[in-house]
């Protein structure tokens, strides 16, 4: 397999990780931008009206999702919302009730179509590394690389290194070559020639040169070495999985999934079993690696910080439905409803009244954006006012009694803290304050708002 930047060309004439080599319209053109036309998202992976049920219980309800080529999409939701079921359905591990799944213009799930998981061109990274304990790190990485006569890959017995007489030879050809190079007994009747020392010429057969292209013979070994280096384990390829740390084992699992150059990477909460410090470091490395390899990836997680910090797009799920899909900033700063707002981050919620583009609430009269599905309500309509804690600012006390506040609690987190303030009338709100600016308990301050509030219909 030859690499040409983000598109890799197979000798059979198809593109792995890209469109097919034949120039057949949209399927033969690389997707350069995630959107075209009237803001429509271009999907390298397209999931349309997908339904999955376990008996009478529907787990996925009319799920549609488009993943742009080369992007990392995180499916975020609470436990039991259906995100792992979605991942398994995309992988072909679960039958679907209805709907279609298309990858690179190729239908893998649809009416009368259910491609086997191993024929979908997908890589899978599970929650735990699930390495083969009897294989070395290098052998685990190369496990998914083919070893057939038709492949361009190197065959090595477990524990062997590439090189030597049989480098680049498949198991069958290796056995045949062994028979060819074995010394043969002298047979005068067969007309065996003797040299000046009297030794038959067949006793010192010169090994027949390996005919295939040497660059193709070593492609399997080179791919293993490339990936081991890529995940920072080049010095550990001969180690057993039992000799690895949790983070190292997960790197091996990632390299193994990347080895065949899949069209789509599926990651099932791959960092959940790691300690917090290692999880934060490893997920950043993995996201950078996937982008560097131009992989299209689908990650499922219930960790809000993980989804918002790693993904190009986030899909928020609840009860088998996708409630919102957008960039991390869109999902966090303009959530479609209060539930999504509360799930992806901390919120400050107040009762208010809509007044011509502003809301009257416990923090005073604030400029606001209407987030309801219908047009803005009439003046005087009760609304739910929503803010993020970091949108609140602190200042010296003012004469406006409605915005004065008293510091009543501090939840310290090192780099910052969530500080609780009690307003006039006993209303409590929280603001996120950087550690150097933390007030002391009992301090009187004035709260301001640096960004438009969000106004939602009252449920």
UniProtKB/TrEMBL annotation:
PROSITE patterns assigned: ABC_TRANSPORTER_1, ABC_TRANSPORTER_2
InterPro entries found in the cross-reference section: AAA+_ATPase, ABC_SmlMolc_Importer, ABC_transporter-like_ATP-bd, ABC_transporter-like_CS, ABC_transpr_FbpC, Mo/tungstate-bd_C_term_dom, P-loop_NTPase, Transp-assoc_OB_typ2
Name of the molecule in the record: ABC transporter ATP-binding protein
Keyword ATP-binding: yes
The UniProt record lists the keyword Acetylation: no
Pfam families associated with the record: ABC_tran, TOBE_2
Ranges where the record places region Disordered: 176-217
Domain ABC transporter: from-to ranges: 45-344
Molecular-function annotations in GO: ABC-type ferric iron transporter activity; ATP binding; ATP hydrolysis activity
The organism's place on the tree of life at top rank: Bacteria
GO cellular component, one term: ATP-binding cassette (ABC) transporter complex
Keywords: ATP-binding, Cell membrane, Ion transport, Iron, Iron transport, Membrane, Nucleotide-binding, Transport
């Amino acid at each position: 397999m030859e690499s040409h930047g983000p598109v890799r060309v197979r000798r059979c004439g198809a593109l792995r990780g890209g469109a097919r080599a034949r120039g057949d319209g949209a399927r033969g053109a690389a997707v350069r931008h995630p959107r075209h036309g009237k803001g429509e998202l271009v999907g390298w992976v397209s999931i349309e009206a997908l339904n999955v049920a376990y008996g009478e219980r529907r787990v996925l309800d009319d799920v549609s999702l488009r993943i742009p080529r080369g992007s990392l999409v995180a499916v975020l939701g609470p436990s039991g919302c259906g995100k792992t079921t979605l991942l398994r359905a995309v992988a072909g591990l679960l039958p679907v009730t209805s709907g279609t799944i298309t990858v690179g213009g190729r239908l893998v799930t649809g009416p009368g179509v259910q491609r086997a998981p191993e024929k979908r061109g997908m890589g899978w990274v599970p929650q735990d590394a699930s390495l083969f304990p009897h294989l070395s790190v290098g052998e685990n990485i190369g496990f998914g690389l083919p070893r057939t006569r038709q492949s361009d890959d190197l065959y090595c017995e477990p524990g062997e290194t590439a090189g030597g007489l049989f480098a680049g030879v498949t198991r069958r050809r290796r056995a045949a070559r062994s028979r060819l190079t074995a010394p043969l007994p002298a047979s005068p009747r067969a007309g065996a020639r003797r040299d000046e020392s009297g030794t038959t010429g067949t006793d010192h057969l010169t090994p027949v040169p390996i005919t295939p292209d040497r660059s193709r013979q070593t492609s399997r070994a080179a791919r293993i070495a490339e990936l081991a280096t890529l995940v920072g384990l080049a010095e550990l390829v001969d180690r057993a999985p039992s000799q690895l740390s949790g983070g190292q084992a997960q790197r091996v699992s990632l390299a193994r999934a990347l080895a065949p150059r899949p069209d789509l990477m599926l990651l099932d909460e791959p960092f959940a079993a790691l300690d917090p410090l290692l999880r934060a470091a490893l997920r950043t490395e993995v996201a950078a690696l996937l982008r560097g390899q131009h992989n299209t990836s689908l990650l499922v997680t219930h960790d809000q910080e993980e989804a918002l910090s790693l993904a190009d797009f986030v899909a928020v799920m609840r009860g088998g439905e996708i409630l919102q899909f957008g960039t991390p900033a869109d999902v966090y700063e303009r959530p479609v409803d209060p539930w999504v707002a509360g799930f992806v981050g901390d919120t400050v919620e107040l009762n208010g009244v809509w007044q011509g583009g502003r809301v009257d609430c416990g923090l005073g009269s604030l400029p606001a954006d209407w987030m309801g599905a219908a047009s803005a309500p009439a003046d005087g309509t009760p609304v739910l006012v929503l803010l993020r804690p970091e949108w609140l600012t602190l200042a010296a006390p003012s004469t406006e009694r409605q915005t004065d506040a008293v510091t009543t609690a501090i939840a310290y987190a090192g780099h910052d803290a969530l500080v609780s303030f009690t307003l006039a009338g006993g209303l409590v709100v929280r603001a996120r304050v950087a550690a150097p600016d933390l007030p002391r308990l009992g301090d009187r301050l004035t709260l301001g708002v640096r960004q438009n509030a969000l106004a939602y219909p009252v449920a």
